[in-house]
Amino acid sequence: MKKVAPKARKGTLRRILKYVGKYPLSLVGSVFFAVLSVAGSLLVPVFFGDAIDCIIGKGNIDKDGLIFNFIAVGISAGVSALAQWLGSLCNNRISCNVVRDIRKDAFDKIGNLPLQYVDTHPHGDTVSRVVADADQFADGLLMGFTQFITGVLTILGTIGFMLLTNWKIGLVVVLVTPLSLLVARFVATHTHKFFKEQTETRGEQTAFTEEAIGGLKTVQAFAHEDENNAKFNEINKRLEKASLKATFYSSLTNPSTRFINNLVYALVALIGAFSVIGGGFTVGGLTKFLSYANQYTKPFNEITGVITELKSAFVCASRIFELIDEQAEISDKENKELGEVQGNVLLENVAFSYVKDKPLIEDFSLQVAPGQRVAIVGRTGSGKTTLINLLMRFYDVDGGVVKVEGEDVRALTRKSLRSNYGMVLQETWLKNGTVRENLKLGKPDATDEEMIAAAKAAHAHSFIKRMEKGYDTVLSDGGALSEGQKQLLCIARIMLTKPPMLILDEATSSIDTRTELKISDAFSKLMEGRTSFVVAHRLSTIVHSDCILVMESGHVVEQGTHKQLLAKGGAYATLYNKQFS
Questions:
Q1: I need a surface site. Which of 270, 288, 410, 508 has the fewest CB within 10 A?
Q2: What are the chain's domains?
Q3: pTM confidence score
């Protein structure tokens, strides 16, 4: 397993402290109330010991002193409890705000990640970092503020009181204590790798679970449930082993430190008892000292537990920071906005590959005039969708140039470029919201009349009206809609925006033939005067295109109209005849 370098851990701590530093008032309040809480708890043994010394002998009791000390004990305990509660409020505020900020930064980064990252990383693992790892980090951070700071202050305070009360016995306690710290450090250092393994395996499990649920229909169709169960059980078993190791080794900390702390307490009691017999200590003084010895050792048990939680929290934080530190898309803040678009598109000597040593598109050139309808056909893996990715600048070219209205798309802002394209993909996407919100996604200021007209043009109006609340029906992950109905909504969404350029990637793949003919007619009207790129497997849908590109292995092997390519009798004619033979 890859070890985390100390510098990386220090870097994680610095970044956490940077987030914490954004809330100075809560941080000051946390420390102040921690000091007040500890001070109150440390004063309780003083007054309690003095109360014992007020009982001089049988029938000889200082009642006024006894009453005063008991009242003082009550006030000190009350102040300590109140300060502890107020401190917890500050700690909760810091923890929740810090995790909120980290989650926001992580989600912002997801929005700016290049498509290559999304394509090459399991979605479930990314979700696990933003959700599960952030929760784990929040728990560790809260425990750190609540117990770590209070514990350290308690240790320092009790050392001071013990040295002032009896410096010889206090010195014995201070000298024996490092054994507890050494044990805690040894265990905590060796548990870090187990917590890292546990967190990574949990992310893998989340990714696999999301994949299994998302493809449940396919899994059931191929009767692959047993294989999926076996794979999940294998991951689950590894997670169990990693969790057991992390829990087992971290659990050694508490009993080890408790043994040493009990040893310290026994030494204090023994030495103190001899001091009382020798007259160097009062019974009340010994009571104070034993109470301080107990208070002194108790935080070590808590802190060692906190360190274990903090180790787990740091691993989770480092995974979130890894996501935040991923290389974002090249910034286009300095780029200019794309002005009025007529639909002039030029690809000149374009070269591109997803894997650097496996070229896909090489020396590809294409010029499209305004209003032209360009169809792209070819076998799977020939580069059709890749070409669309380059037009939309989801990926940047490795060589050559893609221009819109004579401007290199890399010199334009992505927002201005993409807002001039209307895109309908084979894979439909609808957000959780009403039908109205989904249709107006690209044009929020559209009127209801425009929205309904677009829905009618896409032949979606009739089934929308049959829904429970019509256009105000809430769609949760697509709701109970069929794939064809989802696709019609996506088509209506584009028809509402009326962009100057269109990209249709198998836009009617999930629609029945009768509806497809109607949609094709609506698309024909929509594409009039607009530059359009149509990726199609059903060649019947592109016979009226101005230009058909036949792609193989990233190259255009044929180019022309439907009639020209059929007459040529080449690759296109072969594809067409196979479909209609």
A1: 270
A2: 6-203+240-324 (1.20.1560.10), 345-580 (3.40.50.300)
A3: 0.62
Per-residue pLDDT reduced to its tens digit, 230-259: 888 898 888 888 888 877 777 776 677 777
Instruction: Write out pLDDT tens, residues 6-31.
Output: 444 567 778 888 888 888 898 899 88
Q: Which phi and psi angles does 56 have, rounded to 5°?
A: -75, -40
Buried b (16+ CB within 10 A) or exposed e, 369-407: eeebbbbbbbeeebbbbbbbbbbbbbbebeebebbbbeb
Who's near 497: CB < 8 A, 6+ residues apart?
422, 442, 443
Q: Does residue 45 contact residue 52 with C-beta atoms inside 8 Å?
A: no
pLDDT over 90 (residue 415) = no
For the residues 441-470, what does the mean pLDDT come to?
A: 87
Question: Which residues make beta-bridge pairs with 407?
Answer: 404
| pLDDT for 528 | 78
Of 125 and 35, which is predicted with more confidence? Answer: 35
Three-state SS string across 547-571, please?
EEEEEECCEEEEEECHHHHHHHCCH
CA triplet 405, 114, 133: central angle to 5 degrees? 155
Quickly count: other Cβ atoms within 10 Å of residue 153's Cβ. 20
Beta bridge partners of 73: none
Task: Reduce the DSSP state of residue 130 to 3 states and report it.
Answer: helix
For helices 24-53 and 149-165, angle between their N-to-C axes, nearest 10 degrees: 30
